[in-house]
TrEMBL record, chain B:
<feature type="transmembrane region" description="Helical">
    <location>
        <begin position="21"/>
        <end position="44"/>
    </location>
</feature>
<keyword id="KW-0812">Transmembrane</keyword>
<feature type="transmembrane region" description="Helical">
    <location>
        <begin position="156"/>
        <end position="180"/>
    </location>
</feature>
<dbReference type="InterPro" id="IPR013525">
    <property type="entry name" value="ABC2_TM"/>
</dbReference>
<feature type="transmembrane region" description="Helical">
    <location>
        <begin position="236"/>
        <end position="256"/>
    </location>
</feature>
<feature type="transmembrane region" description="Helical">
    <location>
        <begin position="187"/>
        <end position="216"/>
    </location>
</feature>
<dbReference type="Pfam" id="PF12698">
    <property type="entry name" value="ABC2_membrane_3"/>
</dbReference>
<keyword id="KW-1133">Transmembrane helix</keyword>
<keyword id="KW-0472">Membrane</keyword>
<protein>
    <recommendedName>
        <fullName>ABC-2 type transporter transmembrane domain-containing protein</fullName>
    </recommendedName>
</protein>
<feature type="transmembrane region" description="Helical">
    <location>
        <begin position="64"/>
        <end position="91"/>
    </location>
</feature>
<feature type="domain" description="ABC-2 type transporter transmembrane">
    <location>
        <begin position="84"/>
        <end position="195"/>
    </location>
</feature>
<feature type="transmembrane region" description="Helical">
    <location>
        <begin position="123"/>
        <end position="144"/>
    </location>
</feature>
Amino acid sequence: MNAPTSSLVPVLKLERVARSRASRPAVRDLSLSLETGQILGLLGVNGAGKSTTLSLIAGALMPDSGTIHLQGQDFLEHPELARQTIGWLPEAAPLWPELTIREHLDAHGRLRGFSGARLKQAGDAVLERLELQDLSQRLAGVLSQGQRQRLGLACALLHRPALLVLDEPANALDPVQVVALRKLLRELAAEGTAVILSTHQLTEVTAVCDRVAILHEGVLRHDAPLPPDQHAALEKTFFDIAMNGRAQAA
Amino acid sequence: MTLFAVTRLELRRLFVRPLGWTIGALALAELGWRFALLLQLFLLNQVKLAALPDGPGYTDLVAVRLYSSLITGSPLPFGVTELALLVVPLLTMSTLASERSTGTLPLLFSTGLSASRILLGKYLAVLIWLALWLLLAIAVPVSLAHGVTLDWGKLAAATLGTFLALAVLAAVGVACSAFASHPAVAAVAALMIGIALNCINLGAQLAGVSSGFINWLAMSTHQETLLRGLVSSADIVWFLLAIAVALALGTQRLAADRERG
């Protein structure tokens, strides 16, 4: 559940986190913190380390060094914190094709300690919020890409997490659904949920995020608030970092 | 308990997939055929057997022999144990290998579940499925209990031996699924290891050696004792040890998955 957090304690705090993948540093010396109700846009070119960072935050991957604190508690010492605190939608929503939408929600709820009436209420609430009520008995294996993405989001939101971690959530959504997703993220932030939104789309970031972080080759190159109507400035910062990095690599 | 949430999820997946129902039904049909043949043999020899002072009865010749060909001594269709060598790998192949290929394994990790809980939860689900299958298999010979004299103690020992053999094969299957990146690879590996575990002492037996390490290593050695109605703690410890080793290896592989990413 969305636990009440002291305004002094960030929902998420990463300190000097590093992680290698395939004998190559994927994330280096990453320090980052996120407050209640903030929406952080995580930008970077392919291979910048965005998905690795999100996997580390979601607890699916362990860091080689550094610390991760969730609501002031050491996440690495208490991995069970993830069960209540984090909702994670990885890229290309992973689903069990043989289960229905309702069965997915039941399974995710039980994995997070829900049962009985509480489980049903939580399931009904996200089905309504993501407009999936009419599809609740449909098998995940026959859903369209957009419906799969919405189901993945419903599973991530079921337990009303304090931190929502989204990897390319707008992938496969049509323009109407993209607008609905932006509205949903703003509502969640207003309710106090902190959101990390990883994307390739600068427009997604400028549309919903109030802060932006840019990763390049596993290093955090930029982390600043994003004032409204700053698309051009963000675009310039992003391309400066990406192109300079490539030029240096060449 | 999140462990049982994993068990429940895996059981649901086992029961909604047609594969589980198909192999379960086909295996039961084959066992029905074996039962009919065993019963026919028993009825043919009933008069001769009745003349023997301590001759084998319905329990020895029909009920227990349904479990395994180890003590059949005649070319009949497969018993429960031999069928399980095929059925269990098909059942367990998707437990973790498909989670890895569909990307749902990191999602399970992200709920704070340890590798051992994930593996144990899935193992329990397979074990429940196999226990139900075994109950259905034994229901056929037991259904004639009102007309024959059943040695309940011997039948219980044989059932325990067969269940423990299924539990070992399930642990091997789940562990193989933890190691494999594709379900088919997991199934083939589990099949080969299951056959090896069952038949590793075949050469020694052909050479007339009935003791030694190689015979101790074979699952058939320990199951045969139980099928004959003798419950020995040494045999039960062997089964528990085999289960623990397989599950520990699977857990280690799964934990390494989380470490490696």
